[in-house]
Every structure is written in structure tokens, then in C-alpha cells.
Amino acid sequence: MNYVIEAQGLTKRYKRTIAVDNIDLQIPAGRIVGLIGPNGAGKTSALKAILGLTTYEGNLSVLGKSPSKDRAALMEEVCFIADVAVLPRWIRVWQLIELTENIHPKFSREKFLQYLSSTKITLKHKVRQLSKGMVAQLHLAIVMSIDAKLLVLDEPTLGLDILFRKQFYTNLLNDYFDEQRTILITTHQVEEIEHILSDLIFIQDGRIVLNSSMEDIQQNYVELTVPPDRAATTRELQPMNERELFGRHIFLFHNADREQLNALGEVRTPGIADLFVAIMNGGGS
Amino acid sequence: MNRLMALVKREFWENKGAFRTTPLVIGGIFLAAMLMFLITFNHFDNEFQSLKELLRFIAQQDAGLRARFLYESTLVMSMTFSMVLAFVVFFYLLGSLYDDRKDRSILFWKSLPASDTLTLGSKLLSAMIVAPVIFWIVYVITHIVIMLLFSVAIMMLGENPWTLFLGLSNPFKAWSMVLLSYFAQSIWALPLYGWLMLVSAFAPRIPLLFAVLPPVVLGVLELWIDFLHTFTLSDNLFGLFGHWFANSPLIMSADSHGNDNFGAALGIPLTSDFDHQVTVANIFDRLFSSDMLIGLVIAAVFLAGTLWLRRRATES
After folding, report:
1. Residue A285 in this model has a pLDDT that exceeds 50
2. Searching chain A, which residue's CA lies closest to the CA of residue B119?
3. Which value does ipTM take for this structure?
4. Which residues on chain A are in Cβ contact (under 8 Å) with B114?
5. What is the spatial distance between Cα A25 and Cα A6, in angstroms, rounded to a whole number?
6. How many CB pairs under 8 A join A and B?
7. In angstroms, what separates the C-alpha of B100 from chain A's closest C-alpha?
8. Fewest beta carbons within 10 Å, which of A258, B176, B208, B259?
9. SS3 readout for chain A
10. Alpha-carbon distance B206 to B186, whole Å?
């Protein structure tokens, strides 16, 4: 099987710290992968290595190319949005189109103009005249007009309001994603992306602590809500995590017997945020 | 090639003010001064009473002398443009690899399929060719308009501008000489350009400080150590820089060239390493000198360092 991203022993060291610690990773095509981790876990370092923006140790192949040696060639197939505010502030929209058109062989002006027509952005606008949300729309319009195989989004919706954020992911899912493409997203706002992800990777202290498809997560992890009088009984079943909400106890189980849990209380699939907290607090499998 | 041109265009868009507006402003100042000159001469008494008398005085002069004066004055007129061009290119290069690191738009530029070598090349090309050519075009246009204005003024006084000066000299020779000296200067200045780009790629902040301070400190130290040894002040980094400047193939002063052959000069005629008279041969003398060769080696080292830094600009 051909993987879009394949890493063996990927390591990134800074002078004193190890940001990415010996990671093995395989991401096939047609997935939407969420890379989730606390601040300083090594998410951005890993993404930079994948995008050829930094040096690294170990083997890394993205679309069959080496990012550190072949950044320019790789960028014909890979797009990334690093943050909302990185478009040059002096540039005008028409200049941005002309530039991208001449540099990117897979850019479609028609598509771009079509996306742009659904926004308030005009060709004469300078990036500095646009609001943060409009800059994000513009950047997304460029990226979606490029026929790339891998799209990397590093905190793409940071600082945007809820309407823009919802719109951003809706556009991405409806107009861009298909089984030929792969999207890799990091964000702290996990609730927003949890229903669009196909795979989930948790990273902590430079290591992968969870790498699973969403189906597997739904099968393997269970959240159980019980009244206080059954809390002690439930605890004996060795939950990963326990928290209290409005006087009810909520437990998280990994590979537990569903029949048994059903008898105790209300069972459902945990949210990514709760799973994240549980695993980061040492409940990893 | 398409990509390189797109990147060069991007440099022009970003620096329109410096590359295009600046020479236009100089041209405008020239034209304004010309108009003021014409009006003044018509209104006030002075040595020549009026413009008409000045024209009579000029007409009495030898035609060869008038042609020479026209040629030399065309060369001298370029000096204002050249000086400002030098400042523009200096600050352009100093910011060329710094500004996008500062506003983080480097992440966007690096997301385009253009190699760092190509990016560096587009910036160097803009400094060496694009900016000089734009300045040169505006200089030529300004010169043409001045000649036209002067001719109209002369015709209004009932004289014939063609016999007086237009027919005497071929301005293309002076214009080409200026363009040639611009290109030669671009090559001559490569070690400086390389240094500025290196600083631009390296400086964590205030690139101007990082560009100027190290050579000044080094030069002062050299002076001091030298003085301790010999109690004289001989060649050092400052002297080297002075020689580089004085030997430049750019028209930047005037000289008598050893006889009464007075006119524009290449560089500043303080040194005798090269002939300072403005000729094609003298320009090429500089480009094919051993000094130039050493300069190119230094430039290559600086540029290689710049590329190394640029590749790692998104670390940390």
C-alpha cells in the first residue's frame, strides 16, 4: 500500500529538548487525520518536518519524496495553511492569483474565482484591508483551488469567530475533500473537528500515545454515566478516567464489556476532548 | 523561467514605492528645477541679462565643445539617479529576507513550489537588474523631457534648437554608457549585496545594525592593532572599502583626467588603480580585474551562507 506520509524513527531535536521522539507513522490516502496534543507536544515540529520546513533525523517520506531535500517539488502536491495570518499583508488579491497561477502548476483560476464570489473579498483588496476571517477565507480559497494530494492545516481557525470556523470546515468537507486527498489537521478546538475526522492521533512529549481510526475509537472506548450510589461498583471495573458532573459520575472505559456497563448506567461514545484528557492524564493503553 | 519571472514580479509589487515612485520623484524634481530655471532667466537680470543672451553666448562657442558639454552633462545628470538607486538597493536587500520572517508570511512563500535558490535569485535579480533598469528608463525619459522643454523655450525666443544643440550630440551614447555602468556596478557591488542578503537572512532584528556594526568594529580594531605595531595608519577594512568605492565603475564624480579633458568620472579619482575616464574599456578593466575576482569569491561565500540560512529560516 502506498502511504501519503510514512515515517520511521522520525526525531526532531532542538539544542536541549527533543520535540519529536522517534515517531513511526503511516497515513494512507483519503483520510482526514487530526493530530491532537497539548502545547509543546511536538505537533508543529512534526508538521514542519513533513512540510520540509525543518531538518530532522529518521526516515520520512511524503508522497514518495523527501521533504528536507525536495521541498519545492513536494509543494506542487502539498498545500498548507500554517495560521490565519501568514498571507503577506501588502499583496492584492489579483496579484496573489497571478503569482500562484504562475508558480503552482495545479492552480485553477476558475475555481478560485468561484470560491471568491461567495465571499465579500474583491480582486482589488489588499490583504491588510481584510478582516482575520476574510484572510482565512482567501487562504482557503487559494488552497482549495490547487489540486493537491495532501493538505496540512496547523491551527487554521485560530482567532476566528464561530460562524467563520463552521463555514471553514463545511467548505473544506463539501467542496474539497474526496478519497484521493488527505487532510492533516492540528487544532486545540477539537470539538469542531471531531465529526469530520476519519483518524485520530494523540501526541504527548514527542511520542504518539494514540493512533486509531474513528470507528475503532467508537468500538473500543465507552463513556458511562452513573448516579453516585453506583460509582463505587463502577470503579471496580477499572475505568481509565473518572469525573463528576452535576453530581453524576462519568467513567471512561477502554475495551470494556458493554453488557456489563449497560446494566450500570447510560452508555455512549466519548468525545475526543474527554478521551484526550483521559489519555493525557496517564490512562493510555 | 516562468516561476522566476513571477517571483521577480512579486518583488516589484512589494517594492513599487522604492523601485518606481522614487525615480519618478527625482525626475519630477529635475523637471520642476528646469521650469524654475527657464522662468528665472526670463524674469531677472543677471550675467546674461536674459535667456536669449545666454543662447547667443552658447551659439558663439565651438560646436565640438558644445557637443562635449552636452555629452558630459547627460552623464552627470545620471549621478542623482545613481545615488538614490544605491540607497534604494541597499535598503531593499537589507529587508529582502528579513521582512517576511518578521511578519511570518515566509510560511506562505515556503508553501509555494519555488526553491529557496530561486527565491534568492529573484531578489538578487531585482537588485542587480530590475531596479537599475527602471531608474535608467526614468532617467532617459527625464532627459528627453528636459531637452524638449528647453527646445520649446528656445523656439519661443525665435532661435533654432537643432543647430544650437539638438543636432550636435547623439544622446544614445551617453544613455548606453550610463546603463552599462549600472550593470557593471551591479557586478562590482556583489560582495556588498551578498553581505546585505546574509545579514537580512540572519538578523533577529534591526538588520541595519547587524549590517553596519560588525565591519565598523572590525575596522576600528584593525586600525588600533595596526597603530600599536607601526604607529601609522595603513590599509585595513576601511581602506579596502574606500578603494572599492573609489574604484567603482559607476559614474559618480567629475575629473580633469590629467589634462583639460574635463568631464564625468568613474568612481572617485582618488586612486590610481584604474583609469577613471568614462569609457567602455575602463569599465571592463574593472570587471576583469583580480580585485573583481576576489570580490566575486567573497560574494559567493556570502550568498552560500544566505541560502543556508534561508533554508533553515522556519526552524524553531
Report:
1. no
2. A72
3. 0.88
4. 72, 75, 103
5. 6
6. 83
7. 8
8. B259
9. CCEEEEEEEEEEECCCCEEEEEEEEEEECCCEEEEECCCCCCHHHHHHHHCCCCCCEEEEEECCECCCCCHHHHCCCEEEECCCCCCCCCCEHHHHHHHHHHHCCCECHHHHHHHHHCCCCCCCCEHHHCCHHHHHHHHHHHHHCECCCEEEEECCCCCCCHHHHHHHHHHHHHHHCCCCCEEEEECCCHHHHCCCCCEEEEEECCEEEEEEEHHHHHHHEEEEEECHHHHHHHHCCCCCEEEEECCEEEEEEECCCHHHHHHHCEEECCCHHHHHHHHHHHHCC
10. 25
Q: What is the mean pLDDT of residues A208-219?
A: 89
> Residue A103: which of B100, B114, B316 has the nearest Cβ?
B114
**B1–chain A Cβ distance below 8 A for any pair:** no
Using a 10 angstrom Cβ sphere, with 0-12 exposed, 13-18 middle and 19 or more buried, the burial of residue A39 is: exposed
pLDDT at site B233: 55
Handedness of CA B124, B130, B131, B132 (dihedral sign): positive
- In this complex, is the C-beta atom of B315 within 8 Å of any C-beta atom belonging to chain A? yes
Return the C-alpha cell found at A260.
456489563
Beta-bridge partners for B255: B263
- What is the nearest CA distance from A226 to chain B, expressed in angstroms? 46
DSSP state of B232: S
Q: Which chain A residues touch B100 with a CB distance below 8 Å?
A: 88
| pLDDT tens-digit series, residues B61-111 | 888 888 888 899 999 999 999 999 999 999 999 999 999 999 889 999 999
pLDDT digits (tens, 9 = 90+) for B99-151: 999 988 999 999 999 999 999 999 999 999 999 999 999 999 999 999 999 88
| Sheet containing A3-13, strands listed edge to edge, beginning at the edge strand earlier in sequence | A18-28, A3-13, A57-62
* pLDDT at residue A180 is higher than 50: yes
Band (A284; pLDDT cuts 50, 70, 90): very low
Query: How many other C-beta atoms are found inside a 10 Å radius of the C-beta of residue B269?
Result: 18
Shortest Cα–Cα distance, B114 to chain A (Å): 5
Q: Are strands A32-36 and A18-28 parallel, antiparallel or unpaired?
A: unpaired
Q: Kindly report the nearest CA distance between residue B121 and chain A, in angstroms.
A: 15
For the segment B17-25, the average pLDDT, to the nearest whole number, is: 97
Q: Which residues pair with A192 in a beta bridge?
A: none
Inter-chain contact A82–B9, Cβ cutoff 8 Å?
Answer: no
The phi and psi torsions of A20 (rounded to 5 degrees) equal -125, 125
| Pairwise CB contact (< 8 Å): A85 & B104 | yes
Question: Between chains, do B104 and A86 touch, taking CB under 8 Å as contact?
Answer: yes
CA distances to A195, A211, A235, B160 from A215, in Å: 11, 12, 26, 93
C-alpha cell at A198: 476519519
